[in-house]
Amino acid sequence: MYAMQLEAYKTAQINNMSGREIEAGALTRCALLLSDCRENWDAPNRDEVLSEALRFNQRVWSILQSELVRDDNPLPVQIRKDILTLSVFIDKRIIDVLAHPVPEKLKIIIDINRNLAAGLRGSAVD
After folding, report:
1. Is residue 91 domain-resident?
2. 3-state secondary structure string, the chain?
């Protein structure tokens, strides 16, 4: 019963968030999942957890890409191009990590996710 109440709370919370807040939250979650993989690199289930974290990250960035190329996207064209350039880098890095997993390769993805999320929130990254 508690799980149902928690899920209802989460759904209500998401329904009250702006698009920017949702995007920032998704990027933050990506960063946290990848940070957890990086910090627990020697865990016995690392490959499964890493693969899932990278897939989630890829889905979030794919959604961002599809929003950035829309004609009605309100962001200035240059900012859209810059974020799309970052997205290409993220795509390549994800493929690289999947092919040759090394924890150090995750840092740049984590940093980009955190910085972009902070920008969406209008705050600085610590």
Report:
1. yes
2. CHHHHHHHHHHHHHHCCCHHHHHHHHHHHHHHHHHHHHHCCCCCCHHHHHHHHHHHHHHHHHHHHHHHCCCCCCCCHHHHHHHHHHHHHHHHHHHHHHHCCCHHHHHHHHHHHHHHHHHHHCCCCC
Q: What is the pLDDT of residues 67-122, one digit of tens each?
A: 999 999 888 999 999 999 999 999 999 999 999 999 999 999 999 999 999 998 88
Residue 4's identity, in one-letter code, is M
The domain in which residue 62 lies consists of: 2-121
Number of domains in the chain: 1
**pTM of the entire predicted model:** 0.82
pLDDT tens across 52-78, in order? 999 999 999 999 999 999 999 888 999
pLDDT value for 4: 60
For the domain that residue 15 is a member of, what is the CATH number?
Answer: 1.20.120
Determine, yes or no, domain membership for 110: yes
